[in-house]
């Protein structure tokens, strides 16, 4: 018997204007589509009226069905919700940055010209730098040493200053540094791990987008990991309220099973972590599971939004991300691979006909210097050299 696992990969993507994005035929079930062309906006019809500025391009990311090449035939057919292809800075954190800056502008907490600072594993910093560049705020980012250098360069390209903190201080070190700098200089601290703006924006946008795009088709499983927990808490809350029979699957690295340990994070008065979590160990899934349980995540866990927990084994995120690239043409980061791995495991035990949506948080291009690309050569390998030598002209032989 074939299992139908609809996996929607979510990648933080450029928000298309609501009118311009999504499926042309919202009443039709994507499950019956022979080709996505039947439902995608017709090419050549244009995006819609010009956007006022780049921040209008945040949200409304597409959902993509995966083929049967990714998991064994008998478990097949998944939908992925992809968040990267359309968010302007290619990650789920574009939503968070927009929400934090706009809420702080509206409350008056962020003053014109004031410096904005945040601690980040990279994607938030890139998104915050984008928002600051667009609105004219100076931007300072603190980021721990191990996160990929591509991220530092992207933030600097967007005009931000990047303060790199020592590896030994882990995530709590970069968070503490950001707070110290904000206090000393009177800068606006984004507080992504604590602020309600984070999960509320996902409740208002990500959750509704998923259910709307499924157009009445029942969502059986929704699979996500966590960094701040904003996606899990906000979209999860909306999905539980509007599709109560959906099973929410929350994944974390096996090497850093903070939730699984049952040990709570001690907090300062502002909700930030007071110390490093004892169950934390370094893991390769950048953007997931810092060395503390963020307040935003904890408040989602307190509502028991999660129905199932999955631990990701070492290496599974990298290899699944590579499989997604090679088999589906979907280029996502290590956390996207890890989420997809959890979705495929879910598909293996799901009843036939299940619809599964997995969240893909960012693009693989952000990982060129990381283990994700360690096996990818820049020079020609033997196979490529053989092809080059199969005709007489322009053969670049390797240096002796
Ligand atoms: C690569 C990556 N994956 C996943 C996440 C998790 O998203 P959230 O913070 O909404 O839990 C993040 C957040 O920083 C991220 O950068």
UniProtKB/TrEMBL annotation:
Keywords: Pyridoxal phosphate, Signal. Residues 86-362 form the Tryptophan synthase beta chain-like PALP domain. The keyword Signal applies. The keyword Signal applies. One of its GO terms (biological process) is serine family amino acid metabolic process. Residues 1-22 form the signal peptide. Its cofactor is pyridoxal 5'-phosphate. Gene3D superfamilies: 3.40.50.1100. Belongs to the cysteine synthase/cystathionine beta-synthase family. This is Tryptophan synthase beta chain-like PALP domain-containing protein. It comes from Thalassiosira oceanica (Marine diatom).
């Amino acid at each position: 018997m074939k299992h139908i696992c609809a996996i929607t990969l979510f990648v933080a993507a450029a928000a298309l204007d609501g009118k311009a994005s999504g499926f042309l035929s919202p009443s039709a079930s994507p499950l019956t589509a022979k080709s996505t062309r039947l439902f995608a906006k017709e090419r050549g019809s244009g995006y819609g009226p010009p956007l006022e500025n780049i921040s209008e391009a945040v949200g409304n990311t597409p959902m993509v069905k995966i083929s049967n090449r990714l998991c064994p035939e008998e478990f097949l057919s998944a939908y992925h919700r992809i968040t990267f292809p359309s968010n302007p800075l290619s990650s789920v954190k574009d939503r968070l940055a927009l929400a934090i800056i706009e809420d702080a502008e509206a409350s008056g907490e962020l003053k014109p010209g004031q410096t904005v600072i945040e601690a980040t594993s990279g994607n938030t910093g890139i998104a915050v730098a984008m928002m600051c560049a667009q609105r004219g705020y100076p931007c300072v980012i603190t980021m721990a040493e191990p996160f990929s250098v591509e991220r530092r360069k992207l933030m600097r390209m967007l005009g931000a200053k990047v303060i790199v903190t020592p590896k030994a201080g882990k995530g709590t070190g970069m968070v503490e540094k950001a707070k110290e700098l904000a206090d000393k200089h009177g800068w606006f601290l984004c507080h992504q791990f604590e602020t309600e703006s984070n999960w509320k924006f996902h409740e208002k946008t990500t959750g509704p987008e998923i259910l709307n795009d499924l157009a009445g088709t029942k969502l059986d499983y929704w699979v996500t990991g966590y960094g701040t927990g904003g996606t899990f808490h906000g979209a999860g809350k909306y999905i539980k309220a509007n599709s109560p029979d959906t099973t929410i699957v929350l994944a974390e690295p096996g090497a850093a099973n903070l939730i699984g340990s049952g040990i709570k994070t001690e907090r300062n008065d502002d909700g930030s972590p007071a110390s490093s979590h004892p169950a934390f160990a370094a893991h390769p899934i950048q953007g997931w599971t810092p060395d503390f349980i963020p307040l935003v995540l904890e408040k989602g866990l307190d509502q028991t939004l999660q129905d199932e927990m999955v631990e990701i084994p070492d290496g599974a995120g990298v290899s699944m991300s590579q499989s997604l690239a090679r088999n589906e043409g979907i280029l996502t980061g290590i956390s996207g691979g890890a989420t997809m791995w959890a979705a495929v495991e879910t598909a293996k035990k799901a009843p036939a006909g299940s619809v599964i949506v997995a969240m893909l948080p960012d693009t693989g291009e952000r990982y060129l210097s990381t283990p994700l690309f360690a096996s990818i050569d820049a020079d020609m390998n033997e196979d490529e050299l053989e092809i080059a030598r199969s005709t007489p002209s322009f053969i670049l032989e390797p240096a002796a």
